[in-house]
């Protein structure tokens, strides 16, 4: 009987630990160096925004949707929250944080350092994301 109680207690502890770990992993951990990184491109330049929009349409919209609401055609296949790029939460991220997320990804979000190999192009996507604010 002691073994059953022990196994039950261990099982409950394991489930609680996994649940807690999953909750922690849902938050992006962006290194300080990226949080303060400045966007080297002109965010107000219409050509830059158009290029960023084109890259976003090709690489991001299938999951994140045309307006960045997380409602793209592949969104239902994803496990995590795809976010809403128009929200205050996302728009509150620094340019460097957005750049980091695009570059390195995590969980269902792939890293785009190879698919969008140019650092400048990834910054242009950040510029376009800024246009999606509510």
Report on the architecture of this protein.
The protein has helices spanning 2-25, 32-35, 46-59, 61-64, 88-91, 95-104, 119-130. With 134 residues, it is mainly α. It has a single domain, classed as Cytochrome c-like domain (Cytochrome Bc1 Complex, Chain D, domain 2, Orthogonal Bundle). The longest helix has 24 residues, at 2-25.
Unreliable residue stretches: 17-25
State the shape: globular
Number of discrete helical segments: 7
According to CATH, what is the topology?
Cytochrome Bc1 Complex, Chain D, domain 2
- By CATH, the architecture is named Orthogonal Bundle
CATH superfamily: Cytochrome c-like domain
Largest sheet, described in full?
none
Rounded to the nearest angstrom, the radius of gyration is 19 Å
The CATH class designation is Mainly Alpha
- Relative helix content: 40-55%
Tell me the series of helices and strands, N- to C-terminal: HHHHHHH
How far apart are the termini? 59 Å
Q: Give the overall pLDDT as a whole number.
A: 87
How many beta-strand segments? Answer: 0
Provide the structure class.
mainly alpha
How large is the share of residues in beta strands?
under 5%
When the domains are counted, the total is 1
């Amino acid at each position: 009987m002691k073994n059953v109680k022990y196994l039950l207690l261990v099982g409950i502890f394991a489930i609680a630990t996994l649940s807690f770990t999953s909750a922690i992993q849902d938050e992006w951990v962006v290194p300080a160096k990226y949080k303060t990184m400045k966007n080297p491109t002109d965010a107000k330049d219409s050509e830059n925004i158009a290029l960023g929009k084109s890259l976003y349409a090709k690489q991001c919209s299938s999951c994140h949707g045309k307006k960045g609401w997380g409602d793209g055609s592949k969104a239902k296949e994803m496990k995590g929250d795809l976010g809403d790029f128009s929200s205050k939460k996302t728009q509150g991220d620094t340019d460097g944080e957005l750049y980091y997320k695009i570059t390195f990804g995590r969980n269902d979000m792939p890293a785009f350092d190879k698919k969008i190999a140019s650092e400048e192009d990834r910054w242009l996507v950040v510029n376009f994301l800024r246009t999606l604010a509510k």
